[in-house]
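Why Transcription initiation factor TFIID subunit 6 (Trinotate prediction)? Reviewers of the renewal asked for a concrete example.
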Amino acid sequence: MYNQHSISKLIGSGRSVGDIVYFNDEEVEIDDYLGEIKTKLKQPYSDTGLKAHWLAIGGVQPCIPENPILIDAETNNLKKTPSLRDERLPLSFHLQVYYKEITEASIGTIEEKRKEALASLQRDPSIKYLIVPLCSFIFQGI
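Here is what the prediction returned.
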């Protein structure tokens, strides 16, 4: 630690450049400095302090509790197990035809056919298999 209160002026050398101000930094032991601060602090803050540790030594971060845990590149590149949501099961032929009819009816200009398709969606229990394709169809824009 360097003393914060030591400012001096360097005057002279015969040139008229102006005053040069420099800091006369004196080294202070950190334990002495913390001891002075601790005595100045009030009772609730007397347990506060500083702890020094190395962040890196020679470009390598030491394994100590104060530093975060490093993850190896090999561990990071392990194959991830595919989740169930990534795998899509193929639809049966009946559901593919049903999806085609529903999407065509919703895009079409015939209002009667559109109402029939929406009523069919309300009654049909196999709609649960078409949720993902229908949501992506709606997202793309009807």
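Residues 6-14 have pLDDT under 50 and may be disordered. This is the kind of structural detail the renewal will allow us to pursue systematically.
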